[in-house]
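Project standup — Tuesday

K.O.: blocked on the structure for the chain from last sprint. Re-posting the sequence here as requested.
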Amino acid sequence: MRHKTTILAALLLAAACGASPAAAQTKAKAKPKPVAAAKAGAFSLPYEKFTLENGLEVVLHEDHSDPIVAFATVVHVGSNREKPGKTGFAHFFEHMSFNDSENTPVGANRKLIEEWGGQRNGSTWSDGTQYYEVVPKDAFDKIMWIDSDRLGYMIKTVTAEALAREIQVVKNEKRQNYDNVAYGSVNEVLRKNLYPADHPYNWTVIGSLPDLQAATLPDVQEFYHQYYGPNNATLVIAGDINIAETKAKVQRWFGEIKKGPAVQALKPRPAGLTQTKSLYIEDNFARLPQLQMVFPSIQEYHRDSYALQVLSELLAGNRTSPLYKVMVEEQKLAPSVVAYQNSSELAGEFTVQVRANPNTSLQQVHSAIEEGLKRFETQGFSDTELARIRAKIETDLYSGVESVLSKALQMGRDNEFAGDPAHLTKDAQMAQAVTRADVMRVYNQYLKGKPYVMTSVVPKGQQNLAVPGAQLATVYQEKVVAGVQNEDVGQGKEAVFEKTVTKNDRSEPGFLQTPLFKMPAVWNASLANGLKVYGIDNREIPLVTFDVTIPGGHSLDPLAKAGTASLVAQMLTQGTARKTPAQLEEAIDLLGASISVNSTAEEIRVQARCLARNFGPTLALVQEMLLQPRWDAAEFARLKSSLATNLKGQEANAAVIASQNFNRLLYGPNHILSYPTSGTLATTAGITLDDLKAYYNANISPSGAAMHVVGAIDQNTVAAALKPLGTSWAAKPVSVAQQPAPAQAPAGNVYFIDVPDAKQSVLYAGRLALRGTDPDLTKATFANALLGNGSSGRLTQLLRIQKGYTYGAFSAVQEQQEMAPFVVSTSVRANATGASLQLIRDLLTNYGPTFSPTDVETAKSKIMKGNTLAYESQGAKLGILRRISKFNKSPKFLEDDQQQLMKMGVADFQSTIGKYMAEKDLVYVVVGDKATQYEEVKKFANGKLTLLDATGKPVN
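H.V.: unblocked you, prediction finished:
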């Protein structure tokens, strides 16, 4: 898994980063290496690396900025090691690995880590599998115990019942992320046609449903014994650690794991495509035609992969790129065009993708791509464009290793696949070394006149939009049926086995000293025009993240023109009075900065991120965008067209349909929050440029606004840079129209919306609960911790772990000035819709009455310890400042909240749950296949069922 942002991530830093890279394609067994010292001004990833006798390579990285530790285990096995007929198995095994192990309690891996205040997960790609945790440092020994037990002692605990349950969970994941969404089958079609049948990339990582259903216990055991030896893995531990102590603990916990068989390295194998293939897919969920062209390219770490990534930026990375100019500006066929290089262990792919406007011929799109490529050949590119790419990527480099977890994962992958935990610094050199000649050479070698696989995805019944001559692609379609049938699975009995004998005691270790969360120091000030400024000086990376937040946003939209504020926000990025949109984009990129403007339910926010040394000029651009909008009529027309395209594309998205109708039912038709912030096709159709100017003139004011700054910068530097904004932005009063009281649908009502042939049902349940200024909000958030906050919550434990009905289920108490909801949401297997609704009802009914003293202690531990890692990043710290300014909170409010939590007892939790989360007060929304699921939902509704269309209108 080589992400394009990571490959390019160090473009500007190469000169300070050491020796040139080796083209290592297999795992290198390095000798123990001393901690590398960073050169002054250079980017580095210092580490110590050693290898256990069983072959496990261990990388240690110290970072004492927060009292947390991250663990990453990268196993060198992905879907490229699977056998035909057993696709999806590497990913499936990742799921199985999170079940049980010999020396940990049943469910510990999925439940306890979050209760200790940590986070954990895993992922699989074509070439590898990674597992990770990040925890408060007091749980350090406990993660050693869990991680080592998973790697070395899990296989005996696998039962047929656990296997059957996890098969359903993975199938739910496939339905949710691939089968029940638009364009979800494209990757499957591309792989089957790009690579020959015997190529390890011929199938998708998720695999096929029939193959997943056929997985057996012997398959799991064989896969484990063949690929999960410690000699086929890297362990990275990063964070607040002591190197000597950590080495001893790694030896104690991991040293006894038995070495596995040698795993033969796979050699790079390009796709070998000999002719262009054109295919089309009729997509039940797509509302927009999409064209994708994929050219075979080169594997990761090869020097051409860096030049290809630069090429992708030059072709489609900004407004001056030839593909953008032709596709978007001149021919107006689509809102955007994307190009990217994806390199894997064995091969690479260069992709151009366009999701076009409704009813657009994909033949026109294809011709426009060819025209853009020809223009690139003849016109080339400027040195300024290369400088733009180099500048913005330095920021990406630091962003990519901002957290201890991101560093652990990056170092683990690079050690396992390149033999060097700090290969990111060599990436920098390789990217820096890309020349103009390299770019043109790879264009000619991999794209010009070369065969490719092209997919035309068209809405169902619109085959006429596909490229002429395209062949119908074959995609497996699961049949949706009514009733749970024989797929109802559960936890099953625990495995009976004889424990592996070990020299070291493998019982659960205790906690170390508990680290307490302390609020970072917050400074604040006010400008002469009334703008409030809040800041946190944070020096972990040489970046600054900041925003200007202006109250109002969507809440100030006229009801009939919902989406106005969102368009205002977008227009502020479309150039200034002194700069065209292309000139503004270039100015931002040359600073290595990013600036975005967004409208939320209750504010418009200008947000930026930049190198600390470029804070002044970046702020100057923000000021220019904010105070001198361009109001370009052509750009407005383009934005409206793009918005219409995007809104059309959401029409068959079950998750969007469920969310939007849930809000309509909570707030009622006369409240602005019953409309999405982007508006609807009906409300945005009549919005004019004059409407945007009127909104801007009435509502964009420093009065009530706030600026939030986090990063490697002090208050005095910020104050000096802000002087022009304080004098140039004149204050004016903002008139806020009073919204009508929300008109929530009657409690207990159930609403069904039909999405024919949906493979999953999206479920929402909730009610309006309380405002962000309500002192009970903190209590309600605490009370939700064990219900639906993360995978350890009871909703996921019940619906996924016990029943296998879903990939995940969650609940939350939202925070805003207006009355906000308590929400439960999930996406379940279609034929488990009725059963899932009943389980949710029973769980919510019993949650408050059964909340016990043990639950109180578990909730306190989860929340208190979780705070130590919840606010690590600059973005998270920015969120602290936003809450302080919006809700007038104390600079120490999180510490105050912790004190409130410690005083709460069983009665406090139970009364809060009863007040805001009682099942009898909830409204339910179900979006799914009416033909098979309506009758099940009707039974659940007990006569309170209403059928709606996708826009919320009742259907007779």
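K.O.: great, moving the ticket to review. The chain is about 40% helix and 15% strand. Residues 67 and 621 are 37 Å apart (CA to CA).
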